[in-house]
Design a protein that fits this description.
Radius of gyration: 25 Å
Strand content: 15-25%
Strand order of the largest sheet: 1-2
CATH superfamily of one domain: Classic Zinc Finger
Protein name: Putative c2h2-type zn-finger protein
Helix content: 25-40%
InterPro entries: Znf_C2H2_sf (IPR036236), Znf_C2H2_type (IPR013087)
Family: Belongs to the krueppel C2H2-type zinc-finger protein family. Belongs to the hunchback C2H2-type zinc-finger protein family.
Shape: extended
Low-confidence stretches: none
CATH architecture of one domain: 2-Layer Sandwich
Number of strands: 16
GO molecular function: DNA-binding transcription repressor activity, RNA polymerase II-specific; RNA polymerase II cis-regulatory region sequence-specific DNA binding; zinc ion binding
Largest sheet: 2 strands, antiparallel
Subcellular location: Nucleus
CATH topology of one domain: Double Stranded RNA Binding Domain
CATH class of one domain: Alpha Beta
Structural class: alpha+beta
Protein backbone atom coordinates (compact mmCIF):
# COMPACT_ATOMS: atom_id res chain seq x y z
CA UNK A 1 0.00 0.00 0.00
CA UNK A 2 3.00 2.31 0.54
CA UNK A 3 4.60 1.49 -2.81
CA UNK A 4 4.20 3.92 -5.71
CA UNK A 5 4.28 1.05 -8.20
CA UNK A 6 1.17 0.78 -10.39
CA UNK A 7 1.36 -2.59 -12.15
CA UNK A 8 -2.20 -2.59 -13.53
CA UNK A 9 -2.36 -0.80 -16.89
CA UNK A 10 -5.40 -0.02 -19.02
CA UNK A 11 -5.15 -1.32 -22.59
CA UNK A 12 -7.38 1.48 -23.91
CA UNK A 13 -5.92 4.62 -22.28
CA UNK A 14 -2.87 5.63 -20.23
CA UNK A 15 -4.50 4.88 -16.87
CA UNK A 16 -2.44 2.85 -14.37
CA UNK A 17 -3.32 1.82 -10.82
CA UNK A 18 -2.31 -0.29 -7.85
CA UNK A 19 -5.21 -2.77 -7.76
CA UNK A 20 -7.17 -4.90 -10.20
CA UNK A 21 -10.42 -3.56 -8.72
CA UNK A 22 -9.60 0.01 -9.73
CA UNK A 23 -8.58 -1.17 -13.19
CA UNK A 24 -11.92 -2.96 -13.54
CA UNK A 25 -13.78 0.26 -12.66
CA UNK A 26 -11.70 2.19 -15.21
CA UNK A 27 -12.47 -0.36 -17.92
CA UNK A 28 -16.19 0.22 -17.37
CA UNK A 29 -15.73 3.83 -18.55
CA UNK A 30 -14.64 2.45 -21.93
CA UNK A 31 -17.21 -0.34 -22.19
CA UNK A 32 -20.30 1.85 -22.06
CA UNK A 33 -21.98 -0.82 -19.92
CA UNK A 34 -24.06 0.17 -16.90
CA UNK A 35 -24.53 -3.02 -14.91
CA UNK A 36 -26.51 -1.51 -12.00
CA UNK A 37 -30.13 -0.68 -12.92
CA UNK A 38 -32.77 1.18 -10.92
CA UNK A 39 -36.00 -0.78 -10.37
CA UNK A 40 -38.05 2.44 -10.23
CA UNK A 41 -36.90 4.22 -13.39
CA UNK A 42 -34.54 3.92 -16.37
CA UNK A 43 -31.46 5.09 -14.44
CA UNK A 44 -28.41 2.84 -14.69
CA UNK A 45 -24.81 3.22 -13.58
CA UNK A 46 -21.47 1.47 -13.39
CA UNK A 47 -21.04 1.26 -9.60
CA UNK A 48 -23.35 0.07 -6.81
CA UNK A 49 -22.66 3.12 -4.63
CA UNK A 50 -24.02 5.44 -7.34
CA UNK A 51 -27.21 3.38 -7.52
CA UNK A 52 -27.56 3.59 -3.72
CA UNK A 53 -27.36 7.40 -3.83
CA UNK A 54 -29.80 7.54 -6.77
CA UNK A 55 -32.34 5.32 -4.97
CA UNK A 56 -32.87 8.07 -2.39
CA UNK A 57 -34.35 10.33 -5.09
CA UNK A 58 -37.40 8.05 -5.05
CA UNK A 59 -37.82 8.48 -1.28
CA UNK A 60 -38.77 11.40 0.92
CA UNK A 61 -36.06 10.29 3.31
CA UNK A 62 -33.34 12.87 4.01
CA UNK A 63 -31.03 11.02 6.39
CA UNK A 64 -28.30 13.65 6.62
CA UNK A 65 -29.17 16.56 8.93
CA UNK A 66 -26.92 19.57 9.47
CA UNK A 67 -25.97 20.23 13.10
CA UNK A 68 -25.36 23.92 12.34
CA UNK A 69 -28.73 24.77 10.78
CA UNK A 70 -32.11 23.22 9.85
CA UNK A 71 -30.91 21.89 6.51
CA UNK A 72 -31.36 18.20 5.72
CA UNK A 73 -30.57 16.34 2.52
CA UNK A 74 -30.12 12.98 0.87
CA UNK A 75 -26.34 13.28 0.64
CA UNK A 76 -23.87 14.07 3.40
CA UNK A 77 -23.58 17.81 4.13
CA UNK A 78 -20.01 19.12 4.28
CA UNK A 79 -20.38 22.85 3.60
CA UNK A 80 -19.91 23.80 7.27
CA UNK A 81 -17.19 21.33 8.20
CA UNK A 82 -14.93 21.85 5.19
CA UNK A 83 -14.36 18.10 5.16
CA UNK A 84 -12.96 16.74 1.89
CA UNK A 85 -13.09 12.96 2.20
CA UNK A 86 -12.66 12.15 -1.50
CA UNK A 87 -8.93 12.01 -2.18
CA UNK A 88 -7.05 11.45 -5.42
CA UNK A 89 -4.68 8.48 -5.38
CA UNK A 90 -2.47 10.17 -7.98
CA UNK A 91 -1.85 13.57 -6.33
CA UNK A 92 -2.78 15.69 -3.29
CA UNK A 93 -6.20 16.76 -4.63
CA UNK A 94 -9.20 16.25 -2.33
CA UNK A 95 -12.83 17.36 -2.58
CA UNK A 96 -16.26 17.23 -0.95
CA UNK A 97 -18.11 15.20 -3.57
CA UNK A 98 -17.27 12.05 -5.46
CA UNK A 99 -18.50 13.64 -8.70
CA UNK A 100 -15.78 16.31 -8.41
CA UNK A 101 -13.15 13.62 -7.91
CA UNK A 102 -14.41 11.73 -10.95
CA UNK A 103 -13.92 14.82 -13.13
CA UNK A 104 -10.49 15.48 -11.59
CA UNK A 105 -9.28 11.93 -12.30
CA UNK A 106 -9.67 12.64 -16.01
CA UNK A 107 -6.68 14.99 -15.76
CA UNK A 108 -4.57 11.92 -14.96
CA UNK A 109 -6.21 9.42 -17.32
CA UNK A 110 -6.53 11.81 -20.26
CA UNK A 111 -10.14 10.70 -20.74
CA UNK A 112 -12.25 13.19 -22.73
CA UNK A 113 -15.78 11.76 -22.89
CA UNK A 114 -17.44 14.87 -24.34
CA UNK A 115 -17.11 14.87 -28.15
CA UNK A 116 -18.37 17.56 -30.49
CA UNK A 117 -20.41 16.30 -33.45
CA UNK A 118 -19.54 19.43 -35.47
CA UNK A 119 -15.74 19.32 -35.22
CA UNK A 120 -12.85 17.41 -33.61
CA UNK A 121 -13.16 19.13 -30.23
CA UNK A 122 -13.12 16.88 -27.16
CA UNK A 123 -13.00 17.74 -23.46
CA UNK A 124 -13.27 16.26 -19.99
CA UNK A 125 -15.90 18.56 -18.45
CA UNK A 126 -19.53 19.11 -19.40
CA UNK A 127 -19.31 22.85 -18.64
CA UNK A 128 -16.47 23.35 -21.13
CA UNK A 129 -18.36 21.29 -23.70
CA UNK A 130 -21.49 23.42 -23.29
CA UNK A 131 -19.49 26.61 -23.91
CA UNK A 132 -17.89 25.05 -26.99
CA UNK A 133 -21.24 24.02 -28.48
CA UNK A 134 -22.41 27.62 -28.29
CA UNK A 135 -19.71 28.53 -30.82
CA UNK A 136 -21.48 26.39 -33.40
CA UNK A 137 -25.03 27.34 -32.48
CA UNK A 138 -24.43 31.06 -32.05
CA UNK A 139 -26.49 30.90 -28.86
CA UNK A 140 -25.90 33.74 -26.40
CA UNK A 141 -27.86 32.84 -23.26
CA UNK A 142 -26.28 35.44 -20.96
CA UNK A 143 -28.22 38.68 -21.43
CA UNK A 144 -27.39 42.10 -20.04
CA UNK A 145 -30.13 43.52 -17.82
CA UNK A 146 -29.10 47.10 -18.69
CA UNK A 147 -28.96 46.97 -22.50
CA UNK A 148 -29.62 44.69 -25.48
CA UNK A 149 -26.25 42.91 -25.48
CA UNK A 150 -26.06 39.15 -24.90
CA UNK A 151 -23.06 36.86 -24.56
CA UNK A 152 -21.99 33.25 -24.90
CA UNK A 153 -20.36 32.98 -21.47
CA UNK A 154 -20.99 34.40 -18.01
CA UNK A 155 -17.43 35.75 -17.90
CA UNK A 156 -18.08 37.85 -21.03
CA UNK A 157 -21.25 39.20 -19.43
CA UNK A 158 -19.40 39.99 -16.19
CA UNK A 159 -16.78 42.04 -18.06
CA UNK A 160 -19.50 43.83 -20.06
CA UNK A 161 -21.46 44.75 -16.91
CA UNK A 162 -18.50 46.82 -15.77
CA UNK A 163 -19.29 49.27 -18.58
CA UNK A 164 -22.55 50.08 -16.80
CA UNK A 165 -20.86 50.44 -13.42
CA UNK A 166 -18.90 53.38 -12.02
CA UNK A 167 -16.85 50.94 -9.96
CA UNK A 168 -13.14 50.80 -10.81
CA UNK A 169 -11.72 47.98 -8.68
CA UNK A 170 -8.26 47.86 -10.29
CA UNK A 171 -6.01 50.52 -8.73
CA UNK A 172 -2.44 51.49 -9.57
CA UNK A 173 0.04 51.19 -6.69
CA UNK A 174 2.21 53.97 -8.17
CA UNK A 175 -0.37 56.71 -8.78
CA UNK A 176 -4.08 57.52 -8.46
CA UNK A 177 -5.08 55.70 -11.65
CA UNK A 178 -7.93 53.18 -11.37
CA UNK A 179 -9.86 51.24 -14.00
CA UNK A 180 -12.54 48.63 -14.60
CA UNK A 181 -10.46 45.84 -16.16
CA UNK A 182 -7.21 44.13 -15.19
CA UNK A 183 -6.00 44.41 -18.79
CA UNK A 184 -6.27 48.21 -18.67
CA UNK A 185 -4.23 48.34 -15.46
CA UNK A 186 -1.55 46.11 -16.98
CA UNK A 187 -1.17 48.51 -19.93
CA UNK A 188 -1.15 51.51 -17.60
CA UNK A 189 1.68 50.06 -15.49
CA UNK A 190 3.97 50.30 -18.53
CA UNK A 191 4.17 54.08 -18.08
CA UNK A 192 5.91 53.49 -14.77
CA UNK A 193 8.58 51.23 -16.31
CA UNK A 194 11.10 51.41 -19.14
CA UNK A 195 9.80 48.15 -20.55
CA UNK A 196 8.76 48.22 -24.22
CA UNK A 197 7.14 44.85 -24.89
CA UNK A 198 5.78 45.58 -28.38
CA UNK A 199 8.54 45.04 -30.95
CA UNK A 200 8.43 45.60 -34.71
CA UNK A 201 9.14 42.49 -36.79
CA UNK A 202 10.62 44.61 -39.61
CA UNK A 203 13.08 46.80 -37.66
CA UNK A 204 14.50 47.36 -34.17
CA UNK A 205 11.75 49.70 -33.04
CA UNK A 206 9.88 48.83 -29.84
CA UNK A 207 7.22 50.66 -27.89
CA UNK A 208 4.83 50.56 -24.96
Amino acid sequence: THSKEKPYKCSVCNYTCKSSGKLKINMLTHSGLNQYNCSKCSFSCKQARYLKVHARTHLEEKPYKCSECDYSCRQLMRSHSGEKPFKCSECNYSCKQNSYLKVHLRTHSGEKPYKCSECNFRCSQSGHFKVHKQRHSGEKPYKCSECKYSFKTFEELRVHMLTHSVEKPYKCAKCNYSCKLAGYLKKHMLIHTTEKPYKCSECNHSCK
